[in-house]
Amino acid sequence: MTTVIDVQNAVKRYGIGDSSIFALDGVSLKIEAGEYVAIMGPSGSGKSTLMNIMGALDNLTSGKYFLDGIEISSMDENALAVVRGRKIGFIFQSFNLIPRTTALANVELPMAYQGIKGAERRKRAEAALAVVGLTDRMSHEPTELSGGQQQRVAVARALATRPALLLADEPTGALDSKSTHDLLDLFDQINAAGRTVVVITHEQDVGERAKRIIRMRDGKIISDESNIRRAS
Amino acid sequence: MNIFESIKFALRGLTTNKLRTGLTTLGIMIGVMSVIILIAVGNGSSKAVQQSLDRLGTNSLQIRPGERGFGGGGFAGARQRGGASSAVPLTIADAQALVDPINAPDVKQVSPIMNANVTCSNGTSTSTPSTFSGVWPTYFEAANAQIATGNYFSADDVTQGRHVAIIGSTTATELFGTDNPIGQSVRCGGIPFTIIGTTKVKGSTGFLDGDSLFLAPITAVESSITGYTGLSSIIVEAKTATGTNDAQSEITTILNTRHRIKAGKSADYQIFNQASLLSTSASSSKTFTVLLGAVAGISLLVGGIGITNIMLVTVIERTREIGIRKAIGAPKRVILSQFLIEATILSLVGGLMGVLGGFIGSHFTIAGTKPIIVPSSVFLAFGVSILIGVFFGGYPASRAASLRPIEALRHE
Ligand SMILES: Nc1ncnc2c1ncn2[C@@H]1O[C@H](COP(=O)(O)OP(=O)(O)OP(=O)(O)O)[C@@H](O)[C@H]1O
Ligand SMILES: [Mg+2]
Could you tell me if B172 and B164 are in contact, meaning their C-beta atoms sit under 8 angstroms apart? Predict the structure, then answer.
């Protein structure tokens, strides 16, 4: 097995002096290819911060992060863009759709940046939207969609590029139980196809679907164990 | 991603916020348009000044009686006659002496003028022409007085002192109404004159009606109306504009000899040089143009600040969007090219509309001036607006695109 994510003694500090906060306070973590990991913990425990580091969206105060064996801080702008576009599918806690742009165009966007041609792009975007059940909402803009629908567009956008690593920050936060169930089934399929999935969640039953559960508190990992019920 | 894709993205970016796009375009348009029109107005008015100066002629000199002389050709001058050293300042003989190919080779022609202030009458109709002058036929060319009907009077008419006259349209209407004045007789100061021609309508300059005009042979005017009191002025035309100064010194030599003005003493006549008059007018019209140019520059600056402002706000407003794009794999240069293309399209469209507006606006008469477009101002305004648009659209976009995605995403 190859190591996809290798976080070594990661520290992320916000602010300076007495008022500074350690969002990550010495986190070390390895995730192998094909794993399905849930990260859980109370609000403010540093889950999103860790996820942003893993997604190469933010940098560390100290410590190291290797993605597929390459240290992120050593990469230049273009290499980072390629990593973010091709390797990683990121589902944000706050959706982060491009405003005043249709669902379809939003889903097409990462593929456009990868240079995938118009027709192919459209086909894949439509397929991804169909998977999340939004075929009839493709030409709607984010403000014309409900929170759950926006979240599903964000999921479709992350899936359409067929990333090797799927990072999802509270992907079910705005979904009803039926949609949650569908999405988790989808994650299972993706994982079964050999892709690595990392999900942040508050919800116990969402975490239970993963094969490994990491718990955080105050910027530290307090437990890291395989999920006996799911691990094969 | 290829260039077409980038342009498509840019167009989508522009159409997603139509109001902002519209306002930015409008701002650029007004900036460019006002610069073009303002400079065109400045140019138009300085051209107008230039034209009226051209009409005066650049190579003419005007000689007038000096301080000790008697301007205006009134009767008062008669008292002075006979005084040996203080003779009548300017005489026909002076004028004739200036027609001298040997001593005054740069003089083309000489035109003595004797003005009078008299009332003419035709039965019960009367008229007091603003210009009632006794002249030589050379005057017609010097003063650019062209005949509309009838004929000029001839050199022979002058020698013979014939009582013939050429009148302007205002005088003709005042004296004869709608009748044809040619061949008719009028009495001016009690002296009969036969009308032999009328001049083309000249229009008025300032308070002076150029068509309230009565021109007769100088001999007739002097002998019967003003008396030999000294000329009002002599207009001398130099052969070339560059020869004007030479002509002036030739005239000075001749007149000083004739008037027995000793070296170093002040003359009893004055010479006015149109060329020097022209240069002062030209410099004042230049000042005017520079002033308008400065105003135009300021308005371009203000317009530029407007464009800058909108571009900055646009980019700041879209920093979050830039963050999203980076997070899903957009390379910096792609984001940058999108924003640069957006800025370019905005400035191009706004600039072109401004140029169009400038051309349309310049067709109207503004503040009494017919604007004349200066091509370089069009390029300047257009170029500056595009430079500003692209720079201030591109620079903040490039800064935003350099942020880590998470920083840009946190931007609200
Ligand atoms: N930009 C920032 N500046 C200052 N402090 C920050 C910043 N971002 C996060 N933090 C702090 O870092 C800590 C971890 O935040 P993080 O977003 O990782 O929490 P989380 O575990 O994702 O919480 P939640 O479950 O509510 O999303 C929090 O205390 C938060 O206040
Ligand atoms: Mg979070």
Answer: no
